[in-house]
Structure formats: C-alpha cells, structure tokens
Recover the amino acids of this structure.
C-alpha cells in the first residue's frame, strides 16, 4: 500500500503502525505507485488549507478521485479526513482553499470550553461497521480543534453502500469516522491509539 507523502502527516508513526499489522508500505507521491497500490492512506496534521495546498502540489485530489472512481480503497486520517469535505472555517494566511469535496459538509471549530480536543475519547459506532469490528467500545486518541459537526449526505444519492458514520462528543457531537464504500476516514489517530487503533488498521488492511 501507499502512504501519501505530500508534506503533511506523521508519516513515520503511520508507517510503523501499518507495518505492525502486516502491511507492506511505500511512502511516496509517485502517480503510478499511488494508482497501483491496493490501498492509499492520506494522513494529515496541522492546518486544513495547508494540507490542501500540499495535496494540490502532488495532484493528490486527482489521485484520490481517480482511485475512488475505480473503487480503489482510500483511508484518510485526521486532517486527511477533513480535506475530504468541501470546506473549512479554519483561517489560513495564504487564503482559504476548498477541500476535495468527496463528501458534502464544512469543517468547523469545536464548540467546547477546552480546545484543542486532545486525548482519549470513546466513539459511537453504527450498526454494520467493519472498520470498528472488535473495538466498538474502545477509546481512540484525538488531537484536533476542528471537525465536521453535521452529516448532510443523503445515503440514497451515493453510488457506493450507504455511508456509516461514527460520532464522538467534545462540546457537542462531531464526526469521528466515516465508512463509505472504498472511502474511509477517521478524525482520530489510529496510529496513536494503541491496540484499539492497531485493530482498526488491521480491519482496514485485511479488507483490501
């Protein structure tokens, strides 16, 4: 599989976590490698628009779109999940950039007394989840100030299986993960979530 190298994301930790569960990982933005891989992981940390700019520099949006058009699996992590939505209210000195718009919705600042949301938290998984099989009641590690807080995708209007949305709470509900055919994503960091995160990654890797 390929861990997309576009200048953002905890590549070392993500690679180590994926290799721990048996994946053979190549860290690259090479077009041919990305398109040929069984799975593509899009990590991301920091500012939403900065991550989008990094993706644009390696044609990341096009590569993700082409993979999904061919039903090839993609997993977004943290800001790598956020950029899959249409936009973010997070400021950026060079000017805000739109997201990849694979899902409708806007990433907004969490309405909590303490931000960022940093640490372990439980999640509410949907019936039928495959990503969380065996870890439905576990805690996962979050580090973020922004999240999608409203899910607006009509499941009848998608070409893939109806999306399964996992929620968490910090000042209010927010989207913690999405499973939508070949496209999956987590707001938390599975690579920092111990055995529960390892099981989640193994669930995704074995589904490829």
């Amino acid at each position: 599989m390929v861990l997309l190298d576009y200048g953002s994301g905890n590549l070392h930790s993500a690679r180590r976590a994926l290799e721990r569960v048996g994946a053979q990982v190549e860290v690259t933005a090479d077009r041919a490698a990305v398109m040929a891989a069984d799975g593509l992981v899009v990590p991301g940390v920091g500012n939403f628009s900065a991550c989008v700019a990094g993706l644009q520099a390696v044609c990341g949006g096009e590569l993700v779109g082409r993979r999904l058009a061919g039903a090839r699996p993609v997993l977004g992590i943290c800001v790598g999940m956020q950029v899959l939505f249409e936009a973010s209210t997070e400021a950026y000195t060079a000017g805000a950039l739109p997201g990849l718009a694979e899902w409708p919705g806007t990433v907004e600042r969490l309405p909590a007394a303490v931000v960022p949301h940093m640490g372990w938290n439980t999640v509410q998984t949907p019936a039928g989840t495959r990503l969380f099989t065996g870890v439905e009641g576990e805690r996962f590690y979050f580090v973020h100030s922004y999240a999608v807080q409203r899910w607006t995708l009509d499941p009848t209007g998608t070409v893939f299986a109806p999306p399964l949305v996992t929620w968490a709470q910090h000042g209010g509900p927010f989207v913690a993960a999405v499973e939508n055919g070949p496209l999956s994503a987590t707001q938390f960091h599975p690579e920092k979530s111990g055995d529960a995160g390892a099981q989640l990654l193994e669930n995704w890797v074995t589904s490829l």
User: Anything to note?
Assistant: The CA atoms of residues 78 and 187 lie 4 Å apart.
